[in-house]
Amino acid sequence: MSPQPNTSVSARPASVVNEAIRDLWQRSGGMLSPDDEREYQRLLVEWAAAAGTSVRPTA
Fold first, then answer.
1. Euclidean distance between CA atoms 2 and 58, whole angstroms
2. What does the pLDDT look like over 33-59, one tens digit per residue?
3. Can you tell me the distance from the alpha carbon of 23 to that of 6, in angstroms, rounded to the nearest whole number?
4. Taking a C-beta distance cutoff of 8 angstroms, is the pair 48, 55 a contact?
């Protein structure tokens, strides 16, 4: 069975999500904690949806 797409992804524009990604990296000093990594992965999926692309999961 293939995974279902995440329909709870926000409708924020890609540029807004990109800014959130940049902010996360800046706040973390370039070293993501496990919680930051989960947030980063969520933001990547949201950004891909907003940009009309796909993101391949790392695991």
1. 16
2. 999 999 999 999 999 999 987 767 666
3. 23
4. yes
H helix or E strand, kind and range, residue 36: helix 34-51
**How many residues can be counted in the chain?**
59
Q: Residue 36: exposed, middle, or buried by beta-carbon count in 10 A (0-12, 13-18, 19+)? A: middle
**Residue type at position 35:** D
Please enumerate, as own/partner, the contacts of 46-53 that have beta carbons within 8 Å and a separation of 24 or more: 46/9, 46/10, 46/12, 46/17, 47/14, 47/17, 47/18, 47/21, 49/6, 49/9, 50/10, 50/11, 50/12, 50/13, 50/14, 50/16, 50/17, 51/14
Q: What percent of the chain has a predicted confidence (pLDDT) above 70?
A: 75
Q: What band does 2 get if pLDDT is binned at 50, 70 and 90? A: very low
